[in-house]
Task: inverse folding
């Protein structure tokens, strides 16, 4: 019984340790990045068919799984395309698709529709 209690304590500590170390935030990163997104997409204009202008606050933000998930929820059914330097991309144009162009440091440099 004492041994099982010790194993349970160790298992609980290990779980806390793992969840505490699972953060993707690095120095200078804002852990609340996804909160910068609008709650819903406004109606699209002729020039901004993907909502890029609404996401201007994401410029210079570091790419992270949490940010990608939040952007995915924002854009909905049309996938966002994350383009890192040197990444091959297709030349098809989808007006509703959001392209997030990353710089060499993995930060969002530009947002474009297409």
Result:
């Amino acid at each position: 019984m004492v041994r099982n209690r010790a194993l349970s304590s160790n298992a609980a500590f290990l779980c806390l340790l793992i969840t505490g170390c699972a953060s993707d935030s690095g120095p200078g990163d804002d852990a609340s990045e996804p909160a910068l997104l609008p709650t819903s997409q406004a109606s699209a204009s002729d020039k901004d068919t993907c909502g890029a202008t609404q996401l201007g606050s994401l410029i210079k933000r570091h790419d992270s799984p949490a940010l990608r998930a939040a952007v995915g929820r924002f854009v909905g059914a049309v996938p966002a395309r994350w383009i890192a330097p040197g990444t091959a991309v297709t030349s098809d144009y989808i007006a509703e698709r959001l392209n997030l162009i990353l710089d060499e440091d993995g930060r969002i440099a530009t947002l474009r529709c297409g």
Q: What stands out?
A: DSSP finds two helices and three strands in the chain. The longest strand covers residues 108-113.
